[in-house]
Design brief:
Layout (H helix, E strand, L loop, with lengths): L1 H8 L5 H13 L1 H22 L5 H13 L18 H26 L3 E5 L5 E4 L5 E4 L4 E5 L7 E6 L1 E5 L8 E5 L2 E5 L3 E6 L3 E8 L2 E5 L2 E5 L3 E6 L5 E5 L7 H4 L1 E8 H12 L2 E4 L8 E7 L3 H12 L3 E4 L2 E4 L1
Parallel strand pairs: 5-7, 16-19
Antiparallel strand pairs: 1-4, 2-3, 3-6, 4-5, 6-9, 7-8, 8-11, 9-10, 10-13, 11-12, 13-14, 15-17, 18-19
């Protein structure tokens, strides 16, 4: 295509070649931008040509004067005669060289600054596969950004909201998540990350995860949870047997003698609801059951029947008493 563009700029392209060029230009915006850069460099070379002060006619006359006094020698023609390079052809060669350099620079820039992909889950959970084969499940109202290709010696992504990561193992290229002002670093494991304006929470299912903030770092193992406050650099690490972090992925809400106050917290987060407990006497009542793919009203009905509590709706607020 570069050869055809040069012929077009030299007005040497045939009708068929010009049609091919026009079709190529209409195929994509990238082709059009490429041609615009190509033409810009071409025009610059034409300006250089216009500024030349060489008098070609006078030079030709001087050459004839010198050769008239010498004996004419028989001409020897090369087997493959070459056309002399005109200034325009030299300019065309210069154009191709500059364009090649420009393309090399653009390729280097793209390698250093790969295209960023942004995935938003909106009002539903969403599963995405990253360039390295890692699988991410985004909870509702969450966003994940990552490069179209992982270059360099790390795999870096950024998260807002909540997500479960199943990271493809690669000891030579650690997987790093930036969330709030916390860094989560792994090699190959599965874990859940949740952030909100107050804290960042990491729960590990398999493998080993490093959580760092402000020059401090803690290692988190399976069935452990670490919580990092947004307002400080303090880490809180504890064992956990809860499986509520799986709810948005599996649709199974497993209650293992769970206090009512804790269950209402999970339901409020999961259904974006405002559930309050009116009486302190029922806050610590426990429930032991599993809810599978149930609506909020169905779950509240089971809670009411199991614990003998009353459910009231006051506008958008749900009151348990």
């Amino acid at each position: 295509m570069d050869d055809l563009l040069v012929k077009s700029l030299l007005d040497e392209a045939t009708l068929a070649e010009q049609i091919e060029i026009n079709q190529w230009l209409s195929d994509s915006d990238d082709n059009q931008r490429y041609f615009e850069h190509f033409e810009m460099i071409w025009k610059q070379s034409r300006r250089l040509e216009a500024r030349t002060k060489v008098d070609e006619n006078a030079a030709w006359e001087r050459f004839k004067t010198r050769t008239q006094t010498t004996k004419e020698e028989p001409k020897v023609l090369p087997l493959y005669p070459k056309r002399p390079l005109s200034i325009l052809r030299i300019a065309a060669m210069l154009t191709l060289t500059v364009c090649a350099g420009w393309l090399a620079v653009m390729l280097f820039y793209n390698q250093k600054n790969p295209e960023q992909m942004v995935v938003r889950s909106g009002t539903r959970t969403l599963i995405d596969t990253l360039p390295d084969g890692s699988v991410v499940t985004l909870n509702k109202k969450s966003t994940l950004s990552y490069p179209a290709n992982f270059t360099g010696d790390t795999r870096r992504v950024a998260l807002t909201g909540e997500a479960f990561f199943e990271v493809t193992p690669n000891k030579e290229k650690p997987f790093i998540i930036s969330v709030n002002d916390v860094t989560v670093k792994v090699v190959g494991t599965s874990f859940n990350v949740k952030e909100n304006p107050k804290k960042t929470e990491v729960i590990v299912e398999t493998g080993l995860v490093e959580v760092a903030k402000s020059q401090r770092m803690v290692k988190v193992r399976p069935m452990e949870k670490v919580t990092v406050s947004k307002s400080g650099a303090a880490f809180t690490k504890e064992e956990t047997r809860e499986e509520f972090h799986k709810y948005y992925r599996t649709g199974r809400l497993i209650c293992d003698y769970t206090p009512l106050w804790r269950l209402t917290e999970i339901l409020s987060e999961s259904f974006d609801a405002d559930i309050v407990i009116k009486n302190d006497s029922i806050r610590t009542m426990t429930i032991n059951t599993t809810f599978e793919q149930k609506s909020l009203d169905s779950i509240l009905s089971v809670i009411s029947a199991t614990l003998g509590v009353e459910v009231q709706h006051n506008g958008k607020q749900i009151i348990l008493k």
